[in-house]
User: What shape does this take?
Amino acid sequence: MNSGDTAWVLVCAALVMLMTPGLALFYGGMVRARGVLNMLMMSLASLGLVGVLWVLYGYSTAFGTDVAGVGLLGSPTEFFGMSRLVGAEALSDTIPTFAFAAFQAMFAILTVALISGAVADRARFGPWVLFAGLWATLVYFPVAHWVFAFDETNAAGEVTAVGGWIANRVAAIDFAGGTAVHINAGAAALALVLVLGPRTGWPRETGKPHNLPLVVLGAGLLWFGWFGFNAGSALSAGDTAAVVFLNTLVGASAAMLAWLLVERLRHGRPTTLGAASGIVAGLVAITPACSAVTPLGAVAIGLVAGACCALAVELKYRLRYDDSLDVVGVHLVGGLIGTLLVGFFASESAPEGVAGLFYGGGVDQLWRQTVGAVAVLAYSLVLSWFLAWVLQRTIGFRIDSRGEHAGIDETEHAETGYHFADVGSTLRRPATEERGSTDALEGSFR
Amino acid sequence: MKLLTAVVQQSRVEEVRAALVSLGVRGMTIAEVRGCGRQQGHTEIYRGAEYTVDVVDKTRIDVLIDDTEVDEVVRAVVAAARSGNVGDGKVWVTPVDSVVRVRTGETDERAV
Assistant: This one.
C-alpha cells in the first residue's frame, strides 16, 4: 500500500461527496421559489439512502465476483455489509479496498441525484425515495459493474476474476463514468419525464429560475468536486491523475466558452445560466475521455459538448417533453458526446495509450465506445421507464394538481424556502407536544 | 389630513425621501412593489427560452400630511421623482378621516 495514493483517493472521495450538495444547489436555484426545498431534498435523499444501500449490497453488486462469469452482475452477497474488505484493493494494490469503496459510494449517490432535475416540482417525495433505491439496485449497481469492474489477472496474464463486460469484453474507454454515470442518469431522466408528464401549465406558467447565484454556487462546487471525480479515478497520485486534472479544467473551460458563444449568436446575450450549464456540460463530456486525450483534445471535446448541449436544451420545447432542468440535454447528450468523441480524439500520448480515428487508430475504438454508450442508454431507459411506470400505477408517483398548485415544498415537506418577514407566522405547537393538541402552547404558558 | 402616495422609480427613492425630509416630513412608509403602466416590460432569456416580464419593480412611498402643505409636498415629490423617462410613476393624494399616534394616543393633526 502507498500512503500518498491512499491520501489522494480519500480526499477525492470527500470532493465527490461535495458534488451532491453542489448539485442540489445547482438544481435548487433553477426551480421556482416554492419548489426549492424539494429539489434539495431529492439530492439529500440519495446521500441518505444510496449511502446505506452501498454498504449493504451496492458495493458487492458492483465490484463483487461476477455471478455467471459473463460480466453482467457482481455477487450481491459476497461483500454484504462490507465484510471481508480489509486489505489492499486488488487491482491497484496501493490503496485500501475501503478507500476505493468509499470513493465509489459517492459516484452511486451522485448518479441517482442527477436524475432528480428532470422531475422538478411534481414528484412525490416518498415514491422518489423508493425509485432512488430501486434504480440504484437494478440499474446503477449492475451498470457500474459493467463499466468500472476490471478483470483481475495473475502474473501470467490469465484472468483470475471476471469483471464487467463493457470494461473488459468490449473494452470501451470510460475513465470516470460518461456511460455509467451520465448516460445512465440522463436516460433515466428521460424515462421519468415520459412517465410523469410535464408540469401543469408547462411551458408557459412554470416559472423561471428563482436564484441564479445559487446555480453558480452549485456549478462551482460541482467543478471543484469534479477534480476528485475524474483525477481520483486514477486511484493513484501520479501522472495519470495530473493529466486528467488538467483535462477536467480545460474541458469545462472550453465548453463554457462554446455555450456562451452559441447564446450570443442565437439570442444576442451570453447568460449566467448558460455559463453554469456550459461548465457542467463540459465536465460531463470530459469525464469518460479525460485519461484518453491530450489537453488540446480536451479543449476540442469541451467546445463540441458546450455548443451541442446549448442547442440540445432547446429541443425539448419542439419535442414537447418537460425535462425541467435539462438533465437529458446536458447529461445524456453530453455523456454521449464525450463517450463517442473518445473514438475520435483518443491519443496514444495520453495515459490510456489508445489512438482514435483522428490519431491514426481507425474506427476500432469508436465502435467500442458506441457499443458501450448504446448498451447503457438502452438498459437504463427501458428499466427506468418500467420502474417509474410501476410506481405511478401502484402508489402514485406524481403529486396531485392541488399540491402542484400550492407548491411542492408546502405539500411534501411542510416548509417554505425563504422567510423574509415573520408577519403572519406564529408557533402553534412546540416540537415536543403531541400532534393535534393545537392549543398546547397557550395551555403550558397560561 | 391627506395621504400622499407616490409610486416611483427605484432609482429615485433617495431623492424623494430627501425632498420630503427637507420639507419637514419626518415619517413615511416605503415599500417595494411591482406593477405595470405605460412603461414596457423587458425580455429575459433562460437556456434559450424567452420570458417577457410585464410587471416591473417600483417603490411606493406613503406619507401623511396636513391639508395646508399638500401643494408644496406634491411639487417637491414630483420634482424629485422625475427622470424624464417613461415609467417615472405617479403621485396621488387621498383624504384621510382620522389618525392616531399609537404611543401617545394623540389624534388627527397632532398625530400627522
Notes: The mean pLDDT of chain B is 94. Helices of chain B lie at 13-22, 70-81. Chain B has one domain: 2-110.
